[in-house]
Amino acid sequence: MGTRTSAVMNVVVATAMLAGASGAAADDAAAQKLLDRAEIQELVTRYVTALDTRDADMYAGVFTEDAVYELPGNVVHRGRAAIRKIVTDLQASRARNDAEGKPSPSLYHAMFNHAIELVDATHARHQCYAQTVRAAEGGQFIVGFMGRYEDELVKRGGRWYIQSRKLVSFVQ
């Protein structure tokens, strides 16, 4: 082989190696995006599970320490402790109603039509519809709320958390 042929072969081999490396990097980035999306969906599922089971620690654990949660009517909860209190207050209210012989019906939360935007490696936006239903007489269910969650998410220590959440009601 001549010098020119050898040089061309070296360039071809180097280009093939770079293409393979860049393809592997693209595959890794695509895999990470899929993992991030799955982790965000799991985060949202933990939120609903915690709310329906009234698990205050699990509920608070999906939020950052400095999270902000805005509810309809300009009600704002700031910080994980204040957000945790939402569920402990719910627990106390249920216990009072039970003690007075007026048990509260269980609420079931449904979240659907999820949209996840990965802004960068540690920031994302999530939006979905939210609905609560409760069991009624005769096996019927009554819709108690319909709206939308608007979330800003952050990844800290390898885990996704809700940094801010806004619940928007479809009924004013």
Explain this structure.
This protein is an alpha+beta fold and 172 residues long. Helices cover 45% and strands 39% of the residues. The protein has a single domain (27-169), classed as Nuclear Transport Factor 2, Chain: A. It has helices at residues 3-53, 56-61, 80-99; strands spanning 63-71, 75-78, 107-120, 123-135, 141-156, 159-169. A six-stranded mixed beta sheet has the order 2-1-6-5-4-3. A hairpin with a 2-residue loop joins β5 and β6 (159-169).
Number of strands: 6
Q: Please trace the helix and strand order, writing H or E for each element.
A: HHEEHEEEE
Note the overall shape: elongated
Assembly state: single chain
Summarize the structure.
45% of the residues lie in helices and 39% in strands.
For the structure shown, list the relevant keywords.
172 residues; alpha+beta; 3 helices; six-stranded mixed beta sheet; Nuclear Transport Factor 2, Chain: A; 6 strands; 45% helix
Element layout with pairings:
Blueprint lengths: L2 H51 L2 H6 L1 E9 L3 E4 L1 H20 L7 E14 L2 E13 L5 E16 L2 E11 L3
Parallel strand pairs: 1-6
Antiparallel strand pairs: 1-2, 3-4, 4-5, 5-6
